[in-house]
Amino acid sequence: MNDKAIKPPYTSYKSFESLIAELRSHDVLPDVIDRSLGLLRKRSGSEQAALIATLKWFKFIDNDGARTKLLDEYIAADEAQSKSMLKAMIEESYSALTNGTFNLKSATTQQMTDKFREYEISGSTLGKCISFFLAASRDAGIQVSPHVKAPTVSPTTKRKAKPSLATPTIPAAPDQTHHDRKHTAKTHDDSMISIPIPIAGKDGAIILPKGMTDRQWTSVVKMIEFIINNYRETMADEEAEAADAEKDEPS
């Protein structure tokens, strides 16, 4: 297969088409295609990375982002020529799928998924890669099995939505009075107090208004417990998403 350091295109095919159309609209092409370009800056960071990876996959730019002669020729090509060039690029870059050793014309979704797993990709990135391949192949006139559909992410692997704190179901709080907390509280300014929270190797604190009533203290204890418990879960999800993105993003 292609160099595994470069993942197969995982951007949407429409996003790729849009970028090519924008490049064609410029009289002068940039020497280097990187995130500093205006046509990329208006896109999200993840989309920028995915588009740059796609250009590298098709050898439109080198590893340093410098545009190649192939990109110049593709931009200058008319509709028929660009379709022919796209077909050739797909057949070359996805050679393991198009060289006749894989049943591309009659494969199933599972067979296609297993083949793409050889690029060491998984999860939502896997589905995006297959979606791009199917759309690009259709545009290039490459026959692909009608039994292949882009796989969807299993519901069990989806990230949980961050909880809304507007109307929470507040759990029961431990029996603790505001007098116990005031014992360790320190004055933060004229109207606030800072309650230190000792954490191994780190310092933490909760800042609250002074002069709260017993009822307010009880409400605060319940709310803090709810927020901390739920934020811990969502923070773990964010760390996992960042790790997946770092793993999937081409170097």
Layout of SSEs?
Blueprint: H1 13-24, H2 38-41, H3 45-57, H4 69-76, H5 79-93, H6 95-98, H7 109-117, H8 123-140, H9 178-184, E1 186-187, E2 192-199, E3 202-209, H10 214-248
Antiparallel strand pairs: 1-2, 2-3
Keywords, separated by commas or semicolons:
3 strands; single chain; mainly alpha; 251 residues; 10 helices; three-stranded antiparallel beta sheet
Uncertain spans: 173-185, 233-243
The end-to-end span amounts to: 17 Å
DSSP, total strands: 3
Q: What number is the mean pLDDT?
A: 79
Q: Please bin the fraction of helical residues.
A: 40-55%
Widest beta sheet: strand line-up: 1-2-3
The number of distinct helices, counting runs of at least 4 residues, comes to 10
Strand content: 5-15%
Q: Characterize the overall form.
A: elongated
Taking the sheet with the most strands, its summary is: 3 strands, antiparallel
String of helices and strands = HHHHHHHHHEEEH
Structural class: mainly alpha
Notes on the protein architecture:
The chain has 251 residues and is mostly helical. Helices cover 50% and strands 7% of the residues. The protein is built from ten helices and three strands; from the N terminus they run αααααααααβββα. It has a three-stranded antiparallel sheet, covered by helices on one side. The protein is elongated, with a radius of gyration of 27 Å. The two termini are 17 Å apart.
